[in-house]
Amino acid sequence: MKGPKKQPRASEISVPGVDIEQLERLLEFMAEHGLEEFEYSRGDFNVRLKKAGTRGGEFAYVAPAVPAHAVTHVGTVPAATVVPAMAAPVAAVPPAEQLHIIKSPIVGTFYAGASPEAGPFVKVGDAVEAGQTVCIVEAMKLMNEIEADMAGEVVRVLVENGHPVEYGEQLFAIRPKAKK
Amino acid sequence: MFRKILIANRGEIALRVIEACKELGIATVAVYSEADRNSLHVRFADEAVCIGPPRSNESYLNIPQVISAAEITNVDAIHPGYGFLSENANFADVCESSHINFIGPSPDLLRMMGEKDQARREMSSAGVQIVPGSQGIIEDETAARAEAARIRYPVIVKASAGGGGRGMRVVRSEAELPAAFDTARNEARQAFGVPDVYLEKFIERPRHIEFQVLGDKHGRVMHLGERECSIQRRHQKLIEESPSPAIDERKRAELGAQVVKALEEIGYSSAGTVEFLMDEDGSIYFIEMNARIQVEHPVTEMVTSVDLIKSQIRLAAGEHLQEVVGSLVPRGHAIECRINAEDPETFVPSAGHITVFQIPGGPGIRVDTAAHADAVIPPYYDSLVAKLIAHGETRAEAIVRMRRALEMFVVEGIKTSIPLHRKILADPDFAEGRLDTHFLDRFATVSSG
Q: Which chain B residue is nearest to residue A69, measuring alpha carbons?
């Protein structure tokens, strides 16, 4: 959604070449957004940053560095392009994964829970089943329950409680359940 | 006055409303489908909300999505433009119950004008002459036969809820009636969901004349003169002009007064257009009213210097007609050519990527468009790419300006109707104002033979 209410944040960070200042900016950015790990790729340039003390290799999610307007799927950078050892040493880099994005099917106001007291339907780390209610989008005084369209683990909640969402806006990033 | 307006439309008209809002100091919200993400109306609005996938019934025609977008952006009014939801009484109802101003007439008036046989009855009883025809809906073939005999062939069967030429059939003799009646009913059911049709005297060579009106919320209506839109193909207007070469000062005053009196009686507010057919003898019959702003509104704007969109917004906010328009001093003559993305010979739509878009300028030329070089014309919506308007002190000057502007209008990457417009503007009958709604058929025959 374009408008005064929302500004692109992550997208403002650009990494045209490497220097210390830029790395510092990236580290600040990670701290600011509570990220433990950050990966960036543009053309031939790749960088992967990881906070010391983070348990190794479990988490390879890239912050959705997309302007509020983009509709494209957010995915992690393919493992093959990752250049390790730019910052803290990384133990065995896990194969990057394709995250599934649950998008809003309607325009309205996003609510993470059924009521202000009830707490969110889902939070990061929760396992969800396909068809499970993950949030509510209120449209024209009607509470529309939005269901997960795929089973998996909630990796990130992409909208803040009470914020407006447009059609196709990204709500949750889900790591699809591994098929056995 | 309104603080913030949502424009429930796309393309050039969305841009036109944004222009008016900017001049009035009103903030704007654009809504768009996924196909229009990079459109100019999205770019130039203060805020924008994606409301659905490319298909219009899931986006621009989706009432809950549009209303939700209005609610999350906290607007106080919605401008519906033309087409889409502009004449949807149900939408106007929902706006009202959501405490959002619908910039247009009341839901009841939209309903009345949307039912064409009801509109004709109301206008007729308010003193406006209508085409001789059936009093209301024709239920069956027997009734159709009797009515047709009374008003005499040729007659035309029309869908009661119709528009755009769908659900219409001309019948020249009693033998043709049963088949035409059935086809019109079927088309009407498919296109509008109701099979209701009515019958009317068919005028062989009519001119299309329409009056632009503005009404305030305090019972006052005024007219801003007429437009002639006789250059049509398949009932779609292609060229419009104001004033009409077939209407003189006396006729204009007489008809205008009739229209104003009828609409004040009915209680019409906002911008609207009252459409007439003029027969070969110069008699004029009401056919329908479009209760919205029209595509061809710029020709009236050029001649009267009245900004119809700004007026419409101010009237919706409750201002008086007297302070919005004041006295009218029409000047000169204006012509509009609709530049469509279509093959100029076959009229097959031509969606695609525009590579070159060179707009003409100079004295008396206006172009209303949301297209630009590198823009994509999506296949989901109507084919209007630009409106080219030429104004001159006289009709002759407007014509020469239009000719040179058409020469200097360059669009590449898609096919457009520009070559067709060049031919029409070069036609001696057009130059002399000998027009009727079959002009284009006749013209096509001449040009291909």
A: B37
